């Protein structure tokens, strides 16, 4: 009985991991700040850095939709403030937030 429960737990865990990975999306956009949002879009990275250092939260601005998303793990974007980036992220449509899994400069 214990081995059956252990097997079921392992199957459910792997299913949850696979489902989460399937929800990841690769997006291009900018790392901005919560005060300016989509206003700068790459034309003033110094302002974005200053605002974030002053207490504003970093946000992701989707290049295609110009939609502003909060970032639920803001440490993932340190070093990219104001930059045009490609992210792999999991989105929460209800909260309008993203969890950044990887980030790099747009090439």
Chain-wise SSE layout:
Layout: H1 2-22, E1 24-33, H2 45-53, E2 58-62, E3 68-71, E4 84-92, E5 97-105
Parallel strand pairs: 3-5
Antiparallel strand pairs: 1-2, 1-4, 2-3, 4-5
Report on the structure:
With 107 residues, this protein is of the alpha+beta class. It has one domain: Beta Barrel (OB fold (Dihydrolipoamide Acetyltransferase, E2P)). The chain contains 2 helices and 5 strands, in the order H-E-H-E-E-E-E.
Key words describing this protein structure:
2 helices, five-stranded mixed β-barrel, alpha+beta, OB fold (Dihydrolipoamide Acetyltransferase, E2P), 107 residues
Summarize the structure in short.
The chain has helices at residues 2-22, 45-53; strands at residues 24-33, 58-62, 68-71, 84-92, 97-105. The chain has 107 residues and is an alpha+beta fold.
Let me know the number of strands: 5
Structural domain tally: 1
Largest pleated sheet: 5 strands, mixed, barrel
| Order of neighbouring strands in the sheet with most strands | 1-2-3-5-4
Specify the helix fraction band. Answer: 25-40%
Radius of gyration from the CA trace?
17 Å
Structural class: alpha+beta
Q: Tell me, what is the CATH class?
A: Mainly Beta
Shape: elongated
Named CATH architecture: Beta Barrel
Uncertain regions spanning at least 5 consecutive residues: 14-22
CATH fold description:
OB fold (Dihydrolipoamide Acetyltransferase, E2P)
Q: Would you tell me the overall average pLDDT?
A: 85
**Succession of helices and strands:** HEHEEEE
How many helical stretches?
A: 2
Beta-strand fraction estimate: 25-35%
Distance between the termini: 54 Å
């Amino acid at each position: 009985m214990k081995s059956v429960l252990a097997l079921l737990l392992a199957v459910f865990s792997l299913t949850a991991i696979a489902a989460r990975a399937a929800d990841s999306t690769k997006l291009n956009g900018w790392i901005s700040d919560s005060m300016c949002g989509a206003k700068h879009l790459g034309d003033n990275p110094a302002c974005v850095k200053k605002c974030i250092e002053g207490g504003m939260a970093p946000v992701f601005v989707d290049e295609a939709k110009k939609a502003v998303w909060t970032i639920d793990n803001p440490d993932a974007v340190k070093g990219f403030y104001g930059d045009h980036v490609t992210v792999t992220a999991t989105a929460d449509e209800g909260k309008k937030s993203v969890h950044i899994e990887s980030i790099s400069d747009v090439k």
